[in-house]
Amino acid sequence: MEHNIYIYMLIMAVVTYLIRVIPLTLIRKEIKSTFIRSFLYYVPYITLAVMTFPAMIQAADSPIAAGIAFVIAIALAWFGASLFQVAVLACLVVFLIELLPFI
C-alpha cells in the first residue's frame, strides 16, 4: 500500500481549517456565559501545558531529575520569577542533578 503524503497534508489542512472556521460560523454573537468565557480563556494555557509536560519529562535522562526540576519551576513561577528565570533554573537543576552519581 503506497502512502501519499499529499493526501495526508490535505486532510490535515482541511481539519485544521474546519476547527478554526466552524466556531466563527456557528457563534455569531458575544459569549456572555462566564463559565464558557473562562474556559476559552484557559484553553491556550492548557494546550501548551499538555504539549510541554511530556516533552519535558522525556528530555531529561532521568525522570527523577525532570520531576524535581518541575517542582522547583512551579515554585519559582508561583513566587513571581520570570519565564526566562524559571526555564534557565529548571535546566540548571536538571543538569546538576544528572551530574550526581546515584541518579
Give your account of this protein's structure.
Helices cover 79% and strands 0% of the residues. It is mainly alpha-helical and 103 residues long. It has one domain (5-99). It starts with a helix and ends with a helix. The mean pLDDT is 89.
Secondary-structure map:
Blueprint: H1 5-26, H2 34-59, H3 63-78, H4 83-99
Tell me the helix content. Answer: over 70%
Could you spell the SSE succession in H and E letters? HHHH
**Strand segment tally:** 0
- What characteristic shape results from the CA principal axes? flat
Sheet bearing the most strands, described? none
Question: Quick check: average pLDDT?
Answer: 89
Rg from alpha-carbon coordinates: 20 Å
- The share of residues in extended strands comes to under 5%
- How many domains? 1
**Helix segment tally:** 4
Report low-confidence residues grouped into runs of 5 or more: none
Q: What structural category arises from helix and sheet content?
A: mainly alpha
Instruction: Give the N-to-C terminal Cα separation.
Output: 46 Å
Task: Write a concise synopsis of the structure shown.
By secondary structure, the chain is an all-alpha fold.
Descriptive tags:
single chain; 4 helices; 103 residues; mainly alpha
